[in-house]
Amino acid sequence: MLKSHLNHNGKPIFITCEAVKKIKVTKIRFDKKAECARDLGLIDNKLLLELIEFYEARNAIHIHAEIRKSLKYQIDLSWRAYRRMELFKNQIEARFVALGLVSSFPAKPPKSKRSKPSGPAANFAMP
Predict the structure, then answer these.
(1) For residue 90, which of 50, 47, 49, 54 has the smallest C-alpha distance?
(2) Minimal CB count within 10 Å: which of 20, 30, 34, 42?
(3) Using 50, 70 and 90 to split pLDDT, how confident is the model at 115?
(4) How far apart are CA 41 and CA 84, in angstroms?
């Protein structure tokens, strides 16, 4: 009986309701997590795009297959990703301070000097 009234201009009207469902955080795609961080103002759009690029590269690299094929790794991209983590951390800390969630963060420890690489890693120039 109700179904006969649920139409508009000859088209059916569907009744829905919104629901919230808990899912495992591992089931959420990384790019969606990064977009959420950007939408919350934790990171800027430039960093968002780089993080997504790094994550896609991470997923594309299969270390054991690369070793068997004797291919060189994407060292430049790896170093950029490593260095960008400091920017990522700084932007999140600044946003937390701006939001008043914390007053400050602990001082950064002094940087240690890196030793010169040996073995196969010595063949790659470090930027």
Answers:
(1) 47
(2) 20
(3) low
(4) 17
Backbone φ and ψ of 69, nearest 5°: -85, 0
The pLDDT of residue 118? 53
Token representation of residue 70: 């004797």
| 3-state secondary structure (DSSP) of residue 7 | strand
* Residue type at position 22: K
Q: Which of 36, 80, 37, 38 minimizes the C-alpha distance to 57?
A: 80
User: 88 and 46 in contact (C-beta within 8 Å)?
Assistant: no
The structure tokens listed for 80 are 């950029």
> In angstroms, rounded to a whole number, what is the distance separating the alpha carbons of residues 16 and 8?
16
Instruction: Please state which of the ranges 22-31, 54-63, 64-73 shows the lowest mean pLDDT.
Output: 64-73
Instruction: Please give the Cα distance from 119 to 107 (Å, whole number).
Output: 35
What pLDDT is attached to residue 82?
Answer: 85
